[in-house]
Write a structure and sequence with these properties.
Shape: globular
Number of domains: 1
GO molecular function: homoserine kinase activity
Distance between the termini: 42 Å
GO biological process, one term: threonine biosynthetic process
Protein name: Aminoglycoside phosphotransferase domain-containing protein
CATH superfamily: Aminoglycoside phosphotransferase (APH), C-terminal lobe
Strand order of the largest sheet: 1-5-2
Number of strands: 5
Organism: Dyadobacter helix
Family: Belongs to the pseudomonas-type ThrB family.
Strand content: 5-15%
Radius of gyration: 17 Å
CATH topology: Aminoglycoside 3'-phosphotransferase, Chain: A, domain 2
């Protein structure tokens, strides 16, 4: 879509950049929520983010049936938790589904969004989840502290809410939607030869480690883990 995007990737966003990211995501959602669901390349639902990917990635767990059983069970629980929520009022529209810093540039505090390769139709809170997912990964890998990540997420949400509403129920869905994020991309990796490396045991093991961290740290304590 773009041959050039002004600015550069910023891994640790300052306050203004976090506010602007929230604002631009909200502005994008204002537009995408009014677009009809016609001919979407991707649709983000339980079938495409949980059920189908679990079948697609089975071969990556030939030597780790225990890991696959854990992943399947936790994916079922995530799905059940989302089904228990009142999702009737969740905002829907076209999602970017990859709001990681590699997919937007900052020139000072001005942001340019790009890489809409996975844009598809679904709950718009999925986009909030993808940025939350980035912060979780930064903490998990030791590049950021949890208090710093919490503060960044709060500022980002402030920027979003200054321009578009998001309910507490939608935000409560984020840690469970994250399973669909990882499963979707793990499944996608099995469909393209250039991503074969990411279907091998070391990478799959790292994905499981991240998901176990999410379950332990962010799922509500009354959920079976």
């Amino acid at each position: 879509m773009f041959s050039y995007a002004a600015g550069k990737v910023v891994r640790v966003l300052n306050e203004n950049q976090l506010l602007n990211l929230g604002k631009e995501m909200a502005r994008f959602h204002h537009v995408s929520s009014n677009m009809p669901e016609v001919g979407a390349r991707w649709n983000f639902n339980f079938e495409t983010t949980i059920d189908n990917p679990l079948r697609m990635i089975g071969g990556s767990f030939r030597d780790d049936p225990e890991g696959y059983n854990w992943l399947s069970e936790k994916a079922r629980i995530a799905k059940d938790q989302l089904l228990l929520m009142d999702t009737a009022d969740f905002s829907a529209g076209y999602c970017h589904f990859d709001f990681l810093p590699k997919n937007f540039h900052f020139e000072n505090d001005r942001i340019t969004l790009f890489d809409f390769d996975f844009m598809g139709y679904g709950w718009l809170v999925n986009d909030i989840m993808t940025f939350w997912q980035y912060l979780v990964l930064e903490v998990y890998t030791g590049r950021m502290t949890q208090p710093a990540a919490d503060e960044a997420y709060t500022i980002f949400l402030e920027g979003y809410r200054n321009h578009r509403s998001i309910s507490e129920v939608e935000l409560a869905a984020v840690p469970y939607l994250s399973f669909g994020f990882w499963l979707f991309y793990m499944g996608f990796h099995t469909t393209h030869d250039q991503f074969t490396l990411y279907t091998q045991a070391p990478h799959v093991k790292s994905y499981l480690g991240i998901l176990k961290h999410i379950v332990k740290s962010f799922w509500t304590k009354d959920v079976e883990i």
